[in-house]
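Quick start: read one record
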Amino acid sequence: MSPRLCGRPRSSSVGRGAEASSERGAEAPPRRGGIGRFGRSLGDVRGLPPFVRLLAWTQLAFNIGFFAVLPYLAEHLGGALGMGGWLVGLVLGLRTFSQQGLFVVGGALTDRFGPRPVVLAGCVLRIAGFVWLGYARDTVQVIAAVVCVGFAAALFSPAVESETARQAVRFEAAGGHPRARTLAVFSAAGQAGAFLGPLLGTLLLLADFRTACWAGALVFVGVLVAHWRRMPAGRPGGSTPRPGTGSAGGADDGEGADDGEGADDGEGAEGAKAAERATGTSVTQRTADAKATEGTGTTEATGATDATGGVVRATLCNGPFLLLCLAYGTYLVAYNQLYLALPQEVVRATGSQSALGWLFALSSLLVVVAQLPVTRAVGERLRHRTALCLGLGVVALGFAVVAAAAPLGLRGPVGTVPAALHVLLLTFGQMLAVPATRALVTELVAEHRLGFSMGALSSVSGLVVLGGSAATGALFGSGAAPAAVWALLACVPLLGAALGRTVRPPRPARADAGPVD
């Protein structure tokens, strides 16, 4: 039986911060104040294994390259190319579908071949797509280029996200940061890219859109080279990477003992026990599984079949994971209101959308600065399920604030205060809900299905967003009072919190349970 990436054992201090904090406390006393918290956040990043830091930098680069180009695509299509509004919407919709809708494909490929080839293929596609988009002039070429750009993300995003989650679990089991803090670093890096990318794009557009496309492509050239040289090869949970492919990782990256190779790496009894706690499966059983995998071509073929058909069946039968997808989908419906409901509120209050850019910058900058402190102060003191539900509750409060202020009819700069509070609360809820969701995935699915599951999380949630956005648009078009619409929107994350409460991860295996029969 394939092991699950189990939750934190109750007897372990990892994730609670008790013994881990005392061990580090002897080296340096905790600092207080804003500078001290910022220094601790930088320490969290420096304390990660080199491979995990590479993954975080990858997410930063992904978003810088993406947001340097895509926010300005609609203006390029409608202005420079003269496309009609419906055609611009179609092109943007096809890009979104080719990305979110096909995440599950990238996840399945990651489980089958490992993250390295999938990430490299995605980078090549993104480079080709951006260059093609910069030179495309007719509708067919533009559609082909944006589909290429979108499908590239459907490949590398689930590969990087699943590998980050896997490494976060291994780092936690080895006595490092709690997995939620490692995943928070990943989220903060992505938001930093979302903040810096549009600024880079604004500067590049002083030349033209083609220059911005070339700059975005060059960012992905850098990512491609870095992963070609530094990313280990091999399938998730499989054998040790081939020599020369894991120079960034080594033992610190969790590519040795935690893959069942501890006995050969000289980790001894302590390494074996740590591996048992991390996976819920004994080293004896995992060694037997490895020998069976290496035995015959028939066993390998069986594994390939499981990676294609069996993984879909197992996912559809995983009730807690599907509930998590629905709960996370309600968060994405709420987050999507930054592009649907929030612009309408800003226009109502000020008469223009000029304040939107500042609100978006506020959201991204807040995540960059506060993600790690929030995770450390709140997220690590709560179970992942509780952190998810609390985050969704905070998001719902953000909608309730606008609903309560709408009857007052505030205008001008004062009228943007409810919108700013909405963005602040939505962002704080995001900082709790997103790392908790990714951590819960590692508790609900088997390790060798982690890539597919990360892709399925995005794909299922994307379908929820599609239906939720259509319903929201219908509400605003019906002439209903803004207070009523925002109150109904507040109910969406509350529904997600109720669904989240029903997600019950399996109990982690006891360290002394012995081999699995």
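The domain at 317-506 is CATH 1.20.1250.20 (Growth Hormone; Chain: A;).
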